[in-house]
Amino acid sequence: MKGHPGTGKSTLAHALASTLKFPLIDKDDIRDSTFHLQQQHSIAAAAASSSSSFVSLLNDLSYEAIWRVASTQLHLGLSVIIDSPLSRPTHFDRLISLAASAGAQPVIVECKPSDEAKWRERLEGREKSWHKPSSWEELQKLVEGYKGCTEYDVGHVPKTVVDTTAPNVGVEELVSSVVDFIDSFRGRFSKCVPSSS
Q1: How far is C-alpha 59 from the chain's CA centre?
Q2: Domain assignments of the chain as residue spans, ordered by start
Q3: How many CB atoms are located within 10 Å of the residue 31 CB?
């Protein structure tokens, strides 16, 4: 899965995993488990210097964990869904390398809501998390920090973009559309990796 926070990618990823019976590897699950490390470091860092490099290290650790879990599943012959923003080309490159090592074909499912007001409402209405933006202003700051790197060419990798705020289109319709997209590649590849960042 690919997309900014609050775009509906986790909702869609969970629905796809349930429908397809694929293991779901969620970066937020891994990142959530680093809370106590960050909390302990923040106390020590408060007296010393900024903890932004440590936060970045924990984020990188979260990605490393999802790549390793995905690798194990793929090498067992399973298709997987990776729920992460996939916001940086380096993460995409790692996904491609991982898929190649397992003989799998990645498939990108990017969530891009066209209705900014609905997106904002969704973001600000969801359960608060210590490491995710919870306000529109926090999201804008995060996106600005990417400096446009989230828009990159995926080359030969099959990709579909879904509008998670389209009028009169529910999760079931989005799942059906994505499953049809994935099915169009099943005959060509032994394993598909639906992914999106």
Answers
A1: 13
A2: 9-196
A3: 22
| Cβ contact 186:73 at 8 Å | no
Cβ-Cβ contacts under 8 Å for 193 (sequence gap 6 or more): 70, 74, 79, 80, 81, 82, 95, 99, 104, 105, 106, 107
Q: What pTM did the predictor assign? A: 0.81
With 0-12 / 13-18 / 19 or more C-beta atoms within 10 angstroms meaning exposed / middle / buried, residue 179 is middle
CATH superfamily entry for domain 9-196:
P-loop containing nucleotide triphosphate hydrolases (3.40.50.300)
| φ, ψ at 108 (rounded to 5°) | -95, 130
In Å, how far are 8, 38, 50, 77, 106 from 2, measured between CA atoms? Answer: 10, 25, 29, 23, 12
Q: Could you read off the pLDDT of 96-147 as tens digits, one per residue? A: 999 999 999 999 999 999 999 998 888 888 776 656 777 778 878 877 877 7
Q: According to the model, what pLDDT value does residue 47 have?
A: 45
CA–CA separation, 175 and 1 (whole Å): 13
